[in-house]
Amino acid sequence: MEELFNFFITNKEFIYVIILSIFLGVEVISNVPAILHTPLMSGANAIHGVVIIGAIIVMGHASPDNILAIGLGFVAVVLGTLNVVGGFVVTNRMLEMFKKKKK
Question: Cα(29)–Cα(95) distance, rounded to whole angstroms?
Fold first, then answer.
């Protein structure tokens, strides 16, 4: 318990930034009109490519006997890939709605 308390004391500025960013994110997202929500979310999902790169780097630097790091990295790569592909699928379907239909 002492270590946890010391961690919060030494990193209180970072914790403040995280808490403020959570409140700011909730406020920004709650004020987005419904018509813009889908394109913003599909773009945000595509940004998760950074998660894939980070997971690959973690897996590359992990020692071969560290099963936890390799397993978590693999799960992060799979979930990040699903999120990126899902973002592009949603964007593609959304763009198909705005194309003119052939007669």
Answer: 22
